[in-house]
Amino acid sequence: MSATKGKRRTKDERKDILAALEVWIAEGKTLREFTRQEGMPSWQSIYAWLDEDKEFSDRIAHARELGEEAISQECFAIADDASNDWMERLGKDGQPVGWMLNGDHVQRSKLRIETRLKLLAKWNPKKWGDKLDLNHAGEDGGPLEFLVKVERDPGA
Question: In whole angstroms, what is the distance from residue 126 CA to residue 42 CA?
């Protein structure tokens, strides 16, 4: 544990730390990463400070929304980066014979994107979750109409 963990901080120090955290979170980075840096307070302290300061709590909430956008843009960057998708294949003599798909890299990129998207959906399901339309309506948004067909037994 660093020597600064557990240290009492002045209001000005707290404001400086929370301002830095706001920028950090808006970049799509995590609170845990932030608190692991040298000289930073624990994540529990950060949450306690946010409980005490409604204005900063609101600012951090807004920063989280910006961070979600940054993470979604990162997904595009990962998907568009094909730099290691192909590897040069060498023959037994060590000479190049062609190219082959680097399946490990492709699967790792897919995992990185899926993990980010799943986290976004958990953190903010209204914005990033799967959309389910459970509203049922008839033509032009009116009520549903049902037609019940009753067949009579011809032998009756």
Answer: 30
Q: Which helix (H) or strand (E) holds 85?
A: none
Do 86 and 100 form a contact (C-beta atoms < 8 A)? yes
For 97, the token pair is 């014979």
For the segment 134-149, the average pLDDT, to the nearest whole number, is 79
Only one residue has tokens 């709590």, namely 57
Q: What is the pLDDT of residues 36-62, one digit of tens each?
A: 999 999 999 999 999 999 999 999 999
Q: Is the dihedral of CA 77, 80, 83, 87 positive or negative?
A: positive
Is the pLDDT assigned to residue 108 strictly greater than 90?
Answer: yes
Model pLDDT for residues 3-34, shown as the tens digit of each residue: 555 678 888 999 999 999 999 999 999 999 99
- Look at the block and give the residue holding tokens 């707290």: 14
Burial profile 17-37: b = 16 or more Cβ within 10 angstroms, e = fewer: bbeebbebbbebeebeebbee
- Distance, CA of 5 to CA of 42 (rounded, Å): 6
